[in-house]
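step 4 of 6: structure.
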Amino acid sequence: MNENYWSMAQKQRLMAEIRTYPYLISNVLLRSFFQHKGYASLQKRAWQHPSAENLKALEDAFLDFKRMRRFLSYVSQTLYWEAVKFDQRKRRYQQTFPLIVDTSSEDPEEGPFETVTAEENLEKDRMETMASTIEELCTEPWLIQAIQALTPAQKSVLFYVYKKGYTLTETASLLHTTPQNISNIHRRLLSYLAGQGGNGP
Amino acid sequence: MNDRQWTEHLQAAKEGQEASMIWIIQELQPKIQASLYQTSSVDREDLEQELIEKIVQIIVAFEIKEASTLWEDIAQERKEESANPLQLLSE
């Protein structure tokens, strides 16, 4: 925009109008500039002595004021949304790739690895006990053989449903999975055993 | 005036002056710190780095020149507010 577009008389008249009722200005930026205490002396000078120099000083001050409000507003919004997006990205990543310990440490002094290994051993012992208990209950050789070939999940379902007498929902809760999943495992288990011996368990 | 100081540093930072860039980032530290609460404490250091990088990008791309002057904004204000007493004063 050409700086000479506005004549001195026009600028003086606009200044006189805006300075009289600054609280009636609807433009927020303009209103906050004319109500800003830091610019009061500059406004007063331009108001009382509307020379080209004073009006130019006021105009430059307004441009600085406006520029910085625009910059800070943009930066604030951007920082906020960048932080929100960063957090969403992190959460998605953690859900997709959860932190797990998949190998044991060679150093026996590392506490967390010891704990995990101990828990894994307990789980392994429990599964072995469960499998041997199920097999001990069976008298038919074909059934013992068939049970030995089952997956750990199928053995667990067999143990909880037929030895302990739990429902599929209760079994799902114990094995930290969904009833639908347990139902599928159960159905495949029965189908497999029926195929092996001709009769279901 | 504070706004003048900001403008000068912004201009200098856009021209590649490292000291001005650091001054702006330091001035924006409270905003950066407030944004860090959006994520967990373990990720805040990473987020801070990303936010500083973003600020540098904004400074480089920021358009210093304003689209309208004080007089244009005042004139626009008068035009939009036809029922405003300001207009009556000018007649």
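step 5 of 6: annotate
 - The longest helix of chain A spans residues 52-96.
 - The mean pLDDT of chain A is 78.
step 6 of 6: archive
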